[in-house]
Amino acid sequence: MASAHGFDLDTFERLRRARRLAVVFVIGYLPLGLSLFFLNAPQFTGTVALALWLAVTLASLWYLRTHECPRCGQLFYADSKWGQTNLRIPFSGQCMHCGFTLAHAAEDRL
Ligand SMILES: [Zn+2]
Q1: What's the gap in Å between 100 CA and the centre of ligand 1?
Q2: Does the pLDDT at position 2 exceed 60?
């Protein structure tokens, strides 16, 4: 189990912020689409809004993928820069390399 003394707190906070943002974009896609549908938004407007939301979501996932693990320093959600990505991104909170978990680290900080 990681402790507050065993990892970089700044890297940890940046990773948590990026993860939170990506989760909001991923989860928000469906409510946005449903609200556009039920509010009878014009088809072009709805399509453009969902396409933009999807582009921002993919960008946030790519940004999250570039973050390093606070403990081992390797990419948190990927094998390597162009390697395989954790398919549970952004919902997984565990480093692919060392098993560092964000939940345990957050509990240790309290
Ligand atoms: Zn790690």
Answers
A1: 5
A2: no
